[in-house]
Automatic annotation (TrEMBL):
Keyword list, A-Z: Cytoplasm, Glycosyltransferase, Purine salvage, Transferase
Protein name: Xanthine phosphoribosyltransferase
Database matches in NCBIfam families: PRK09219.1, XPRTase
Underlying gene: xpt
Domain Phosphoribosyltransferase: 23-156
Taxon lineage: Bacteria, Bacillati, Bacillota, Clostridia, Lachnospirales
Organism of derivation: [Clostridium] hylemonae DSM 15053
Length: 190
């Protein structure tokens, strides 16, 4: 998605340790016009009318998933990284290691929001090592639901996540795939 790539080049910041900061337009402050175009592009890439839910993980994926959902006309469900008193009843559970935060989270989702009748599209902001996405896919499998695919805004193509997901036969669409990244620059996969 050329518009996204241009925005990453213009306003993204490459930090040491293969960290790309896009917080000025994607995951802290959000450019809604850009994210609206991202939502349209996900709908174009996932044209199936079978999709009944969009699943993401808190926190950065929620806004993107919500805006995309308006083009699918389905609800968004998000997995939480912490148990709270607001979650009652049975939950699906998995563990996810965050590349950015260098922390393992216990991720949960209430069973009342996902079941075997659902056809699920996962949407998230980043894909690096694939841990968060694999955790969400585990929850979908545990629910007995059907995985329709995964839409990622930015994939770090030089890390293993995308390869792992594709090798598992998941329809993965990444809108911008970073081929190389140094402490000062990046290149995109064409």
């Amino acid at each position: 998605m050329q518009l996204l790539k241009e925005r990453i080049v213009k306003d993204g910041t490459v930090k040491p340790g293969n960290v790309l900061k896009v917080d000025s337009f994607l995951n802290h402050q959000m450019d809604i016009d850009l994210i609206n175009e991202i939502g349209k592009e996900f709908r174009r890439r996932f044209p199936s009318d079978k999709i009944t839910k969009i699943l993401t993980i808190e926190a950065s994926g929620i806004g993107i998933a919500c805006i995309a959902a308006q083009y699918f006309h389905v609800p968004v469900v998000f997995a939480k990284k912490a148990q709270s008193i607001n979650i009652d009843g049975e939950v699906y559970h998995t563990k996810v290691e965050s590349f950015t935060h260098k922390k393992v989270y216990d991720v949960i989702l209430s069973k009342k929001f996902l079941d075997a009748d659902d056809h699920v599209l996962v949407i998230d902001d980043f894909l690096a090592n694939g841990c968060a996405l694999m955790g969400l896919l585990d929850i979908i499998k545990e629910a007995g639901a059907t995985i329709e695919g995964a839409g990622i805004v930015v994939e770090k193509g030089f890390q293993q996540g995308g390869q792992i997901i594709r090798q598992n036969g998941i329809h993965l669409e990444s809108l911008a795939i970073i081929e190389t990244m140094t402490d000062t620059s990046l290149t995109f996969r064409e």
